[in-house]
Design goal:
- There is one protein chain.
- The protein is of the alpha+beta class.
- The protein is 16% helix and 35% strand.
- It has 2 helices and 14 strands, in the order E-H-E-E-E-H-E-E-E-E-E-E-E-E-E-E.
- The protein has helices at 21-32, 69-86, and strands at 13-15, 37-38, 55-56, 58-62, 93-94, 98-104, 110-114, 124-131, 138-140, 143-147, 150-153, 161-165, 170-172, 175-188.
- Strands 1, 2, 4, 5, 6, 8, 9, 12 and 14 form a 9-stranded antiparallel β-sheet that branches. Strands 3-7-13-10-11 form a 5-stranded antiparallel β-sheet, with no helix packed on it.
- The longest helix has 18 residues, at 69-86.
- It is globular and about 55 Å long.
- The mean pLDDT is 92.
């Protein structure tokens, strides 16, 4: 029997043109029409708090509705396609609303190193981030991943959909100028084994 080498599992995968420019503009307009609030960290304790040393973002939640159904459908299709191509996790869909996230340079918007797990009813398995801002609209604010002994940076291309296992350590570096907007989603499924 020969030794068969498997290709390495990528830290993250990207789909650059999953949304048309018109769809991206529509998605951003939809998100801008929502009421954003300062994000908090869910620690599972009664004193869930705003920890500006860890996270400064404004977020709004996109609930399923006739107006947002196309967004849910598209993100679901893209997530499944990227997962099938790269990770082959057993996915069951979304158990949380989609998150519209805003990082403002005026407040140093950022989210320090973290994983997308915590005190949740259903395990997040695949995290998705859709880049809604043109890279010329802000400075800093890179989506970065800790991959062994190196840091990998996701593309900043408008419309890039980045998917990665929810257990991967990642961060968004401080926004030093302008505003970065992103749509964030998490697909769920049974426990990894």
């Amino acid at each position: 029997m020969s030794d068969l080498l498997l290709p390495p599992i990528p830290t993250f995968v990207v789909w650059d043109d999953a949304f048309t420019p018109a769809e991206l503009a529509s998605l951003t307009a939809f998100g801008d029409g929502l009421t954003a609030e300062t994000a908090t960290l869910k620690t599972g304790s009664p004193d869930d708090a705003i920890r500006k040393d860890i996270r400064i973002t404004q977020t709004a939640w996109i609930a399923p509705s006739p107006q947002s159904q196309w967004i849910y459908d598209r993100v679901q299709r893209v997530a499944r396609a990227l997962n099938d191509r790269s990770y082959q996790f057993d996915l069951r869909g979304f158990s949380e609303n989609l998150q519209y996230t805003i990082y403002n340079g005026t407040e140093g918007g950022h989210y320090d190193w973290h994983v997308d797990h915590g005190p949740l009813k259903v395990q997040r398995k695949l995290s998705i981030s859709v880049q809604l801002s043109d890279p010329s609209d802000y400075d800093g604010c890179n989506l970065e991943f800790q991959a062994g002994n190196k840091i990998e940076t996701a593309p900043r291309t408008l419309g890039a959909v980045v998917a990665f296992p929810s257990y991967v350590l990642h961060r968004v570096t401080p926004c030093t100028w302008g505003t970065r907007k992103a749509l964030v989603a998490w697909t769920t499924g049974p426990k990894l084994r």
